[in-house]
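Input/output pair, single chain:
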Amino acid sequence: MASPAAVPLATSVYDPDCRRCPRLAHFLDEVKHDHPGYFCKPVPPFGAAHPRLIVVGLAPGLHGANATGRPFTGDWCGPLLYSSLHRFGFASASESRSVDDGLKLIDCRITNAVKCLPPQNKPERSEVRNCTSFLGAELAEASQLRVLLTLGTVAHQAVLDALRLRLRDYPFAHHRRHQLTDALVLFNSYHVSRYNTQTGRLTEAMFHSVLADIRKLLDS
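Output:
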């Protein structure tokens, strides 16, 4: 399967052949053997070439992005994220079905802290660090970036590492806003995972409230 990246990406941002993490590379080989039709590569960012908003998730899901090649597409996490982005004007449609469904993101890009599928959805700290250079390069190249939205603590820490900032100065909390520079704001949200949404830790109203504040900021 060819890379489904929506925009050209430098190898410093995305390497489809990356094998830096032996555990993840071996796991992808095993999953590809069991599911030959799955993407089973590092999953590229998806969205606008010059985003003002970048949403940072954790990692591809086994039957989601790892299967389809697009972040948050094909599993439980995607519907809340994409329907919410559409509601606030960041997506052309309310759902993401496949890489060829015609969906466009508007002023927005979605990426992950870890580009490869981790076993049990739990990347090791060293694997997150191995991907930090890709995330850092992506943020550095986003010249129009004004807002970062991190979904969960792992994504939050990865963004801080990429920007060489300290967690103690910017602690994670749902719906917290951090002014990183005069031009860049970081918002936190609980991850749109099945566990969080089914247990009520993250409700649609809670997530919409975060995006409403982001929309207001970008429109100001």
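The first strand starts at residue 46 and ends at 47. The radius of gyration is 16 Å.
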